[in-house]
Design goal:
about 300 residues; 13 helices; mainly alpha; about 80% helix; about 0% strand
Length: about 300
């Protein structure tokens, strides 16, 4: 290999090493900004209304990409029933999330949602036939303890917002699980179905809690909600394409940091000690599960599959 070729390869690796994490961090910031904006808007406008306008704005941003790819990936999408199940879970998840942030601090809600990978790991042996050894089961148990601590076991843990949060994060987990079964479907197709499902559900519920949008600024924020979410999806997908998952995926936990910051700045939420402790257990167990799965994938690439 010539020196010039070697130099080009090294430059590309350096770019990937720096750009991937930077793009992922920006994507997580935009997701967090989207969540904070959503919490602000559902305080004044109906839940269905917010989700409807958000979905329409995001679909308008996605439209040029879909036009370039053509309709074939949508019309001939693999496993229609699994696609429908994923849309059902994703729609339930987004409604639960925006309902939860109406009543709970942003950091609390984000903590519940960050437990989704733990639920995925717990359900994967039953639903996907994946092997889970004692190390990951231990991490899963610790993650569940973190969720219970965050809920603060008492009569208050069974309030409607808390229950809706758990339902939402379970729906998110099943959305992730169904996504594992749809690896052959392009990302743009998955996002299109996801937005379409949420938009149609929003259209059904919007008339029941519609509030007139009298401010141009509020209308701009309602539209921007979808634009920011689409931008975040694009950034995350880009980061995963130019860097390996082991490098950028753990950066998703910066969502919690931004949720604490935005919750304090915009809504005056002060993190509870139990939330911080529970979040630490959830993040720690989630990180362990992720890196353990990465380690096993590398081992299985060179050795026959054996139990952990």
């Amino acid at each position: 290999m010539s020196n010039s070729t070697t130099g080009a390869v090294d430059t590309h690796r350096s770019y990937s090493a720096l750009a991937g994490p930077a793009i992922m961090l920006l994507g997580m910031f935009m997701f967090s900004l989207n969540d904070a904006m959503g919490k602000w808007l559902v305080a004044s406008y109906g839940l269905g209304q917010v989700i409807l306008i958000r979905s329409i704005a995001a679909l308008l941003i996605l439209a040029p990409f879909l036009w370039r790819a053509g309709l074939k990936p949508i019309i001939e999408a693999e496993r229609p029933m699994m696609q429908a199940a994923r849309v059902m879970f994703s729609t339930l998840e987004v409604f639960c999330f925006y309902y939860a942030v109406m009543y709970l601090p942003l950091a609390d809600v984000m903590t519940y949602w960050l437990a989704a990978p733990i639920y995925v790991a717990a359900a994967s042996p039953l639903l996907l036939g994946e092997k889970v050894g004692w190390r990951r089961w231990t991490a899963i148990a610790i993650g569940f303890v973190g969720v219970i601590i965050t809920l603060e076991p008492s009569g208050a843990m069974f309030t409607l917002p808390a229950v809706i949060s758990i339902v939402g994060t379970l729906a998110f987990a099943f959305m992730l699980l169904s996504g594992r079964s749809l690896r052959g479907t392009p990302d743009k197709t998955l996002v299109f179905f996801q937005l379409l499902g949420a938009g149609l559900a929003g259209l059904v519920f919007a008339p029941f809690d519609w509030s007139p949008v009298t401010s141009a600024a509020d209308f701009g924020l309602l539209c921007l909600l979808g634009v920011v979410a689409m931008g975040a999806h694009i950034l995350v997908n880009r980061a995963l394409k130019i860097s390996d998952a082991a490098t950028v995926a753990p950066l998703q936990y910066t969502l919690l940091l931004w949720a604490i910051i935005f919750g304090w700045l915009f809504f005056g939420d002060v993190p509870r000690a139990t939330m911080l402790l529970g979040a630490s257990l959830i993040v720690g167990s989630g990180m362990f599960i992720f890196f353990r799965e990465q380690q096993l994938k590398k081992r299985d690439a060179v050795l026959p599959s054996v139990p952990e």
